[in-house]
Here is the input.
Amino acid sequence: MSVLEAISAAIGSFAIGSLAAYLIEQQEEEEEEQQQQQQQLEQELEMKEKQRKEEERNKKNNANEKSKWRIFKEAKAEAAAALPPEAVKMYTRQDVAEHDTIDKRVWVSYKENVYDVTDFLDNHPGGRDLLLLAAGKDIEPFWRLYQAHVNSDVAMEMLKTLKIGELDLEKEPKVEIDESDPYKNDPERHPALKRHSAKPANMEPPLSLLRREYLTPSALWFVRNHSPVPIIDGATHEITIVSGEQNHENLNLLRTKAVINLEHLKKDFEKKTVVATGQCGGNRRGGLDLIKKSSGTGWGEGAISTAKFAGASLRDVLEVHAGINLHNYERLGIKHVIFYGADDMRASIPIEKALSPFGDVLLAYEMNDCDELPRDHGYPLRVIVPGHVGVRNVKWLSKIKLCSEEADGPWNRGIAYKGFGPGYSSVEGLNIDSVPTMQEMPIQSVVAEAENVSLSLATTSEKDEKKRTVQTSAKGFAWSGGGRAIIRVDVSANNGLTWQTATLKEGSDQPLSKAWAWTFWEIDDLEVDATHLKPGDEIKVLVKATDASYNAQPENPESIWNLRGLNNNSWHAFTVKVEE
Amino acid sequence: MSVLEAISAAIGSFAIGSLAAYLIEQQEEEEEEQQQQQQQLEQELEMKEKQRKEEERNKKNNANEKSKWRIFKEAKAEAAAALPPEAVKMYTRQDVAEHDTIDKRVWVSYKENVYDVTDFLDNHPGGRDLLLLAAGKDIEPFWRLYQAHVNSDVAMEMLKTLKIGELDLEKEPKVEIDESDPYKNDPERHPALKRHSAKPANMEPPLSLLRREYLTPSALWFVRNHSPVPIIDGATHEITIVSGEQNHENLNLLRTKAVINLEHLKKDFEKKTVVATGQCGGNRRGGLDLIKKSSGTGWGEGAISTAKFAGASLRDVLEVHAGINLHNYERLGIKHVIFYGADDMRASIPIEKALSPFGDVLLAYEMNDCDELPRDHGYPLRVIVPGHVGVRNVKWLSKIKLCSEEADGPWNRGIAYKGFGPGYSSVEGLNIDSVPTMQEMPIQSVVAEAENVSLSLATTSEKDEKKRTVQTSAKGFAWSGGGRAIIRVDVSANNGLTWQTATLKEGSDQPLSKAWAWTFWEIDDLEVDATHLKPGDEIKVLVKATDASYNAQPENPESIWNLRGLNNNSWHAFTVKVEE
Here is the structure.
């Protein structure tokens, strides 16, 4: 109310004598009200300024994708309409393959057409880096990963505007199949996978794709084979369960040898599902090799993936078909379960993991809701041992043996999965039996993506005028073996001097002692000291995680270096650039 | 044979014409023989030199204890016999207490006699450091720890020769008991325990005693109390098992409320034994406090101990008295087991740990083969949760509740056992619910003893004349939560530049996934670069261990600092001196 109104109201209700006092009081109230208004205004201004900055930031990094897409499309269509029709240019796949960088222009092919997507890179709704993964390649396998493209006309319409020619399929050199090549029947692999070796296939997905979906698309799952992929007919496939010592069978541990037809396994046992992360024991070996070469594939950070598997519970199968359970295994002297693959792999796990009511070991025949396993991932049947190192998840399963000893061969009793101290750089003189083979894995975390640092967004510290800070963002995953949940992820942009705790996302709701799958994390406000940064500098975004047993990650790889290059779970660093 | 004899022999058996050739051959053989003899001689000399060095070393550190003891005793007896008998000198306990360093002379008392053991320190068979632990104190509690003293006349005879007087018990000030002191009935504690606080008792054993026996003597077990020790009559003690929500009971999770008399518990259930290590969540907090003060007792490395416990299996008790087992707990909505102590402590564990066939949770009534628990350690009944943090092993057990939620109060839902990131140095604004409380502990290792470096034993490197090295030795223990066995211990004397793998001793034969107790380790040939060392220098002996899940320890405490000072499992350092 206005002052006059207030006076009228006051006269009506107060004694005239107290008017002066009232007026003073009223004036104070008015002043207070004005102050509040002023404060509100300031807050609104501040909020607007924040919004403006946020919008600026969005403009730079997260602009409305659909509108960007539409604007770009309309501009291109206009440009195309203005030009006279030309004769179709013809290219070979080789021509396309040679255009795989921005310098050389980025081409892709799709259903016999060739497109130059260079000018579209920055407008790609999924980001330029994602589109660059397909540079020089056919784009179809990438589109298959993301239903957004396949189910929408927009992507196809967009692509049309970028067409520069067609594939001349007649000119394609015929691929000669070498009939003597044992790998000739291996399945095709997704072009996004980084190939460490093709024969046998050892391939990992790029980090940017790995962090996009909680369940890794089956086509992107890291491939770790030891031999050609076996050719098996799932309709007639059988597995046997036997008992005995190494190289002997039927030493009376079991009442009988069981032969189980896969189709019966599916029908006779409840289908159980487990969402589990698989990780190769050599994941991040490349980081150890930088110190001193270890032996094995020099994996990056991508020898890890997650899927939803379905199958029969091993525990149930052992009970029904072999009569083995928690009540009799000790008396029978059974200590290990050895799995044999059709590729001649064999690996064992302790019987306690197989029989534990909390072990969740599966004989899996489905992956990611597809009713059969991909050939690279064990079709028609593989073992899933949640929380244990990848190698225990034997693919193309043909036989299960209950045994008093662990599997012979390199993967259990041999050196392949045994970690020695950093002082041992040669197998000579090493007592291999003295160290147990890997089963459960230690805690691991990786920065999969981090935003470049924009100096234009830096602000001056309120406390210290000379200090300028800027925020950046990062995303990644963390996982620990043995079902130990991730309870915290810390991120640092100053080499570990200070840490900020990230937000745990998908996977953070898993049970604390049965968290078989990874946990995604992200941080939006990672503080970077920009005081002395200049464009072109690089900074490292570091991550370390803590699991439900409060295990931490070691700082440096030096102290955990081992000659087999196993278990590199030192703090992971992701390098980002400093921009203007 | 001599050359002449050889010639005669040759003439008798060879044609004369080949004599010259024979002689040359023979000469060569002789030379070879001489060379061999020379080599043998050199080897013998080398061996003798080695032996001499070894003896010198033994003389310094490990001399034959019995003979040392005898020689010293005889010398003292001789000296005593030569002196005229004197009047007995009288001292107070305070006089003895004031003689607690070598500078002030080291006195001890035993059964009303006072002894000056200063000159005996270096002859003490257990080492001078061990005897120094009793400096200024009554020696009886120390002798009780080691049967060698109590059962042998030698120790007593030895002590007699060191007598300097007697205790004047009449002069002792009367200890006034403050009847209002709630702690007045607390038991006496062993004088070797380091007291962080007396009311309530928070005390830890010295490392040198901790590493002497695999099973920590009960009197030396670290004491971590929250209140006065309750007074309970074991003969009539009962525990109840109930179900319900927080602060409510009997919400139909159980058929009935069970009341179990302790004597019946002992009779009705098989006595099971578990050798388990207990560790306080704040063990080594002192190391974190050096960076920045955290909250809680500033423990050294001794808030950890190991014992053999015996009692009834919680799993069996829950099945028989509450009808709860692996088949029905999920349906009944039971997620946690809360234990209540008579001291008003309450703490819970996940139901899966309680019911797991591999969990080994005990309701323990015996410790180290003594038929009752010491009062400080839970008499008459405590919980033993192997592999979990100390606080879950609730003492003076009075009630068990089966519940859908974990215990309320500071020890589960509160902040006391929750680890936040190093960036949080205040509880303000902290989302306490966001981090799970500690249950299983991470991998830990400690150097308990290490020998000083003797420059006189340094040798020159064969490869590099300028480099001198010397060996030292160290001993310690390692343990990991969750039953994860210790599979390797690495030790470094150069700040982690290189590591040597130690020998695993007692405890190394535990099952890989049920290693509830610590593993002792030792190293005799830890290499020290002595090139630039001089007497008076100090060097650090570092240790880090690896568990069966290949978890490693973090390098520095900075990255794991947390405001509650929990889980300091950074590399442990033990400082040794460099001597001439």
